[in-house]
């Protein structure tokens, strides 16, 4: 911790302090760059949510974009406080989002319509309970860069899934670009008879 600034949140209780000095810029933000590097994830998830809603995609895609926002906000809270409870709020949504991706990718082909969603839900619940009772310690270098790249990856992956699902549903998907760079899916649903 920087000598001049003390922590507003109290002593660090998380299992890991990442690769940047704590409380250098503010007594409210433990890891400044790991905290602010989540902002693009929130903005891109909001963009994806707006596109998903405006194109009337299935609700699962709105949930996916909201999940991206929750994950980024949880990560911001964790890296700004370095508290164990907020660490769980960062790590548990990562697992839930992975389960949501599995649901979206494989749900059209499931032969057991209730078994797989039930299994995914139970897996997520058991993980959350275990995670609240146990301490997991994983380390990465360049964690702020990881946040930044994962924000873009989440947006691009969600856009790809929306395109694939629109193709499966016969909605004539087209890839358009916002600001000449950010792809989004424009669909034309067939007229109801």
TrEMBL record:
Its cofactor is Zn(2+). It is found in: Membrane. Zn(2+) binds at residue 79. GO terms for biological process: autophagy; ceramide metabolic process; defense response to other organism; response to salt stress. It holds the Pfam family Ceramidase. Ca(2+) binds at residues 18, 20, 22, 31. It comes from the Eukaryota. GO terms for molecular function: hydrolase activity, acting on carbon-nitrogen (but not peptide) bonds, in linear amides; metal ion binding. Keywords: Calcium, Hydrolase, Membrane, Metal-binding, Transmembrane, Transmembrane helix, Zinc. GO terms for cellular component: membrane. The chain crosses the membrane at residues 32-51, 63-82, 94-112, 119-138, 144-164. InterPro entries: ACER, ACER_plant. Belongs to the alkaline ceramidase family. This is Alkaline ceramidase. It comes from Fraxinus pennsylvanica.
